[in-house]
Amino acid sequence: MTVASDITKELRSAISEVNYWFESESESPFRIARSRNANITPDRIKSLDLGMRRTMAVGGSYTLPDRDTVVLTQKDLTVFHAEIDSFVALIAETHQGIAAGTHSYLQLESATETLEFNVEVYNLLNALEDLTINYVDYPDDPYVGLIIIGLADSIDRNGAPTKEAIIMRSLLTQT
Question: What is the DSSP string of 13-65?
Answer without folding.
Answer: HHHHH----TT-SS----EEEEES-----HHHHHHHHHHHHHHHHTTSS--PP
